[in-house]
């Protein structure tokens, strides 16, 4: 029964945490028994079971309970199969969504070598606009996961494609995550490539795209500022914050300065 399998999946994370805490008694139980179940349920015929499996996998990754070898040899291969060009549409949408969510939890090397090539392919998926929409909505998070070099070499060309997509929702999603993408690039790329691209979004024929671009204008401009003098920095959760100056701290206005936070639209979209 699918309800039984779903319930089982919901119990996997607490069992895994217990096994981790009792590892001397159960050194290989999680890797031998539980992890194969999680991987198998990612391809279950029932969508509720698959969803429970995806949620369990993310919790396990967040808790750092999955070994690097399991990530590279079991998790990534199944996600690459599910997101392949000839994969079922529903499976492909789910796979790209889980790839985007887990990117921030994996090492940069794993993301760049195993998941980034497929992500770039999915950005150009001509069959399903839902796939491109997920890629656009999470683009800033992927840039942050792989760093400046891979972003400028591989992701920026795909970002240009998405920013000129025929579906206005794609262009709107790009406008919303523009600050996060810009923050990952060098000042030269920011000035020479992203600025003209942003102008095209702010002049878009669709008013929803223009509105999203205007809302991202301030955060985008802030990425040109020198963090050491402007006090702007990106938190781990993807929000742009203002670090109080020593003068503010000495004058007792630290609490006021800390309350000013500009949220990255990439985080909201994700």
From TrEMBL:
The lineage of its organism: Eukaryota, Metazoa, Chordata, Craniata, Vertebrata. The keyword Cell cycle does not apply. Gene3D superfamilies: Leucine-rich Repeat Variant. It holds the Pfam family HEAT. One of its GO terms (molecular function) is protein phosphatase regulator activity. PANTHER family: SERINE/THREONINE-PROTEIN PHOSPHATASE PP2A 65 KDA REGULATORY SUBUNIT, WW-BINDING DOMAIN-CONTAINING PROTEIN-RELATED. The keyword Repeat applies. Keywords: Repeat. HEAT repeats lie at residues 115-154. GO terms for cellular component: cytoplasm. It comes from the Eukaryota. This is PP4R1 phosphatase. SUPFAM superfamilies: ARM repeat (SSF48371). InterPro entries: ARM-like, ARM-type_fold, HEAT, HEAT_type_2, PP2A_Regulatory_Subunit_A.
